[in-house]
Amino acid sequence: MNREPINEDTRRYPKDILEVYVAKHCFGCDEALRLAKEISRELPSLKVAVRILEEMTEGELPEIIATPSYFLNGRRLFIGNPRLEELTAKITLFSSDEGRNYE
């Protein structure tokens, strides 16, 4: 049986999901897509999902004020695009902490 080696990232983010909400005609959403790809490379065990507002029903949406919006485990991290370093730092701080560190 082949087993993949466990790296530090795999132990750190096994249950976390980053959702990036974008709109088709959003000014900053191309950058949001780039950041989603970058964070996937930087934190490979973090699940990253890009959600396109026009393809979702109203019942599936969290409270979206503007796009792009970034949510970790259902909690809003950013409205608008952060720098990659800021996004990584917040994910590291808030991952799997059951909301204790959320504002």
Describe the 3D structure.
The chain has one domain: Glutaredoxin, CATH 3.40.30. The protein has helices spanning 8-12, 29-42, 84-94; strands at 17-22, 47-52, 69-72, 75-79. The chain has 103 residues and is an alpha+beta fold. It is globular, with a radius of gyration of 14 Å. The model is unreliable at 1-11 (pLDDT under 50). The protein has a four-stranded mixed sheet, covered by helices on one side. The chain is built from three helices and four strands, in the order αβαβββα. The termini are far apart. Helix content is 29%, strand content 20%.
Please summarize what this structure is.
With 103 residues, the chain is of the alpha+beta class. The protein is built from three helices and four strands; from the N terminus they run H-E-H-E-E-E-H. 17% of the residues are buried.
Beta content = 15-25%
- Unreliably modeled segments: 1-11
CATH architecture: 3-Layer(aba) Sandwich
Tell me the CATH superfamily: Glutaredoxin
SSE map:
Layout: H1 8-12, E1 17-22, H2 29-42, E2 47-52, E3 69-72, E4 75-79, H3 84-94
List keywords for this structure.
4 strands, four-stranded mixed β-sheet, 3 helices, alpha+beta, Glutaredoxin, 103 residues, 20% strand
